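Tokens for chain A. Residues wanted.
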């Protein structure tokens, strides 16, 4: 392997390619990954994201084998709210929001108590234009935030509320059956209890409430990182989720869709959310996909999103 930083002045992502004279292949990457998990951890804990390029990953099955070589126990997307398609073996399509919409920076499943440590993205088809998976270092985002806004989120934390519709009820977003990948209510209740998530059945579906910090310390490095999806979940902030979801109607007690507020129940101001988005724009890193690329991310140290795109695009994801 040979490594370098492809973007001047930035240490994310670390680009990793076959050494000069070596032929890149899926089997070569799988063999390397199986014997170098400690080295990969070292890179991820330092840089947050590693981009493997030149190994010709060209199918969901091969991508699965690469991800499993790096982290054998891949996980299901249980409790996830983003629209995606399962391809089997814990490999999914990346979020399937319309291509003209941008998916803002976020940490995967940060609205649960069962977020993945690592994410794996694989580009099988790069978009004709756009479609980058933009990323950001959560440590830099935290530093870039307005100090008053940062302290408010640290002190007050975040509450995530969602009203998932039943599959028989038309409306925005995924049904609770799709989100939890089961139609067994008892299993859903078990999952919610395991995550300290409040859950109650409604006439239209399932209401859940979960409290999480907005900033967490990395379990290995001890670094403080911005870690949440507050702006994406807020019902009145202009994001891809707000556009696809039903807006909150005054007087409607528990509308379908999601919302985020401070952990003490206080509403988060649009000004604070705009300050968060400003910090994102000043810290995001954008690089073009190439077919066959695999991006590995530390889900606490690094955030990710998706830029709008034109033309066919096929990017897969796995989690561990």
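Reply:
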């Amino acid at each position: 392997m040979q490594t370098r930083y492809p973007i001047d002045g930035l240490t994310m992502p670390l680009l990793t390619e076959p050494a000069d004279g070596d032929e890149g292949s899926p089997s070569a990457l799988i063999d390397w990954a199986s014997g170098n998990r400690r080295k990969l951890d070292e890179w991820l804990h330092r840089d947050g994201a590693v981009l493997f390029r030149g190994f010709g990953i060209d199918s969901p099955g091969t991508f699965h084998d690469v991800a499993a070589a790096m982290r054998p126990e891949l996980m299901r997307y249980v409790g996830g709210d983003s629209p995606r398609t399962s391809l089997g073996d814990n490999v999914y399509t990346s979020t399937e929001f319309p291509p003209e919409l941008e998916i803002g920076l976020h940490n995967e499943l940060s609205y649960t108590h069962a977020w993945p440590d690592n994410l794996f993205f694989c580009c099988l088809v790069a978009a004709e234009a756009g479609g980058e998976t933009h990323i950001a270092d959560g440590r830099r985002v935290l530093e870039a935030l307005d100090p008053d806004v940062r302290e408010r989120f640290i002190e007050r934390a975040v509450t995530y509320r969602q009203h998932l519709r039943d599959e028989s009820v038309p409306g925005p977003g995924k049904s609770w059956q799709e989100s939890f990948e089961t139609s067994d209510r008892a299993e859903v209740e078990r999952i919610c209890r395991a995550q300290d998530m409040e859950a109650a059945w409604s006439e239209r579906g399932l209401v859940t409430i979960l409290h999480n910090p907005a900033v967490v310390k990395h379990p290995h490095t001890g670094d403080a990182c911005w870690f949440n999806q507050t702006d994406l979940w807020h019902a009145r902030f202009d994001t891809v989720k707000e556009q696809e979801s039903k807006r909150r109607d005054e007087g409607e007690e528990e509308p379908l869709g999601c919302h985020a507020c401070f952990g003490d129940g206080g509403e988060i101001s649009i000004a604070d959310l705009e300050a968060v988005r400003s910090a994102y724009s000043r810290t995001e890193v954008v690089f073009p996909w190439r077919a066959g690329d695999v991006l590995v991310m530390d889900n606490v140290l690094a955030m990710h999103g998706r830029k709008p795109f034109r033309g066919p695009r096929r990017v897969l994801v796995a989690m561990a």
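The longest strand covers residues 118-125. Residues 246-250 have pLDDT under 50 and may be disordered.
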